[in-house]
Design goal:
The chain is of the alpha+beta class and 421 residues long. The chain is built from 18 helices and 8 strands. The radius of gyration is 25 Å and the shape is globular. The relative contact order is 0.10.
Length: 421
């Protein structure tokens, strides 16, 4: 992402402008640079909920143990010898006796060190893995100091960390190794496997589909005791397993498990529901989109939170499933959510991101309907119309400006868009 630029703390990627006479995604070079910049600014808002990972539905997962191991300047196994307390920066640390060096630093003479103070997430009662990061105190300092972090570990987790493939191993091969450790009886190993999948990209997850236990994954999707944070990943993996399976029964069973999860009675917050919806789309393509439509998720009676999950799944489909769901269908499905007050603003922003300029009329109508009481909708509508290269969008902007120029100006300013046209 080094080619992006920062706008108000958000990454903006250069994208090709859309040809006004073509469908979404078709590139053209005639759009004025100032209009393209408007698209950039608007797109940052739509990009915020998504991450370039295999699982945009897993939340923040941090580094895996093998990543910490491979990135560390030194690695050791130690035993807690004191209680945890706050250090000068307010972070908790604890002293550990070094029992075994797994890798020593090429800088300081770590092999001669017998105890270290390491940062901890919480008090450690016994054995821990210790990772050192080299951090120079100043540019003039020849030898960096080592800052230690500790992760509580039993013998099983220590063995897992030692055996885990190196970061240099091809990603799909790494995932094959971790796939059989999802929901491992040791919670630390299960959490590490989840982290590895949460950090991987979609192509690598698909390449490693042969290592997935389809029966286990389809069970986890609907198992009440599963960690809520992992349900979204397992929904996605059930879809990947179904799409890769050659046994028709496995395909049917995976799809049936995903359908049951979609149809299950809803509570206030359905953890991982966005990943389950994405799994349906991965498994069934356009047929899956039809299923979600028949379940009423696009209709006015759908729960607002479910429709937010649905938008996340549609973004995933736009970015990763163009081979099975045409992007025009994703754009049309997104446009069908414009009439839902809870997601109208987000759907409008996504349509601008997709350069789906055929939706000028329904987007413009939002200004006088839902937008009458919602400044977020007004901002999204103003941004979409200002970014759109079609004459119809210019006409709608002129109409709104005639009715209430101050309100339009405020909406454009709130969207951080240039006003000149």
């Amino acid at each position: 992402m080094a080619c992006g630029m920062m706008v108000r703390g958000m990454m903006v990627m250069p994208v090709a402008p859309a040809d006004a006479g073509h469908s979404p995604g078709r590139a053209a070079s005639s759009l004025p640079a100032r209009i393209v910049f408007r698209v950039f600014l608007l797109v940052t808002v739509a990009l915020a909920p998504t991450r370039a990972t295999a699982c945009p539905f897993c939340g923040t997962v941090g580094q895996s143990l093998s990543q910490q191991r491979d990135a560390a300047a030194a690695v050791a196994v130690g035993e807690a010898v004191g209680t945890a307390g706050a250090d000068a920066q307010g972070l908790h640390s604890q002293r550990f006796r070094i029992d075994q060096w797994l890798r020593t630093s090429s800088g300081p003479a770590t092999a001669a060190v017998s105890t270290v103070a390491a940062r901890v997430a919480g008090p450690v009662a016994g054995t821990a893995m210790l990772f050192a990061t080299a951090q120079p105190e100043s540019p003039d300092q020849a030898v960096p100091r080592l800052v230690w972090a500790a992760v509580a570990a039993d013998e099983s987790l220590l063995g897992h960390m030692s055996a885990a493939p190196a970061s240099t191993v091809p990603a799909a091969d790494r995932l094959r190794w971790f796939a059989v450790r999802l929901e491992h009886p040791d919670p630390g190993i299960a959490a590490d496997a989840f982290t590895e999948f949460g950090l991987a990209n979609v192509a690598d997850v698909r390449a490693a589909a042969d290592a997935l236990d389809a029966r286990a994954v389809m069970t986890w999707v609907n198992e009440p005791g599963i960690d809520a944070r992992r349900r979204g990943l397992y929904g996605l993996l059930a879809g990947v397993a179904a799409a890769a399976a050659t046994d028709p029964k496995v395909v049917r069973d995976c799809v049936a498990a995903l359908h049951r999860a979609v149809e299950a009675p809803a509570d206030d917050f359905r953890a991982g529901f966005d990943g389950i919806l994405a799994g349906v789309l991965v498994a069934e393509g356009e047929k899956g989109l039809d299923f979600l439509t028949l379940r009423g998720l696009f209709g006015p009676g759908a729960r607002p939170m479910d429709q937010r999950h649905l938008l996340a799944a549609l973004r995933f489909a736009w970015e990763s499933l163009a081979d099975t769901i045409p992007q025009r269908r994703v754009a049309a499905a997104t446009a069908s959510l414009l009439s839902s007050p809870a997601v109208a603003a987000l759907a409008t922003i996504d349509l601008a991101r997709y350069q789906a300029w055929d939706e000028v009329a329904p987007v413009a109508r939002l200004w006088d309907t839902i937008g009458a009481d919602d400044p977020l909708v007004r901002r999204a509508v103003a941004g979409y119309l200002a970014a759109c290269p079609l004459p119809a969008a210019r006409s709608e902007l002129d109409r709104i400006r005639t009715q209430n120029p101050d309100l339009l100006q405020r909406a454009l300013d709130a969207a951080a868009l240039p006003v000149g046209r």
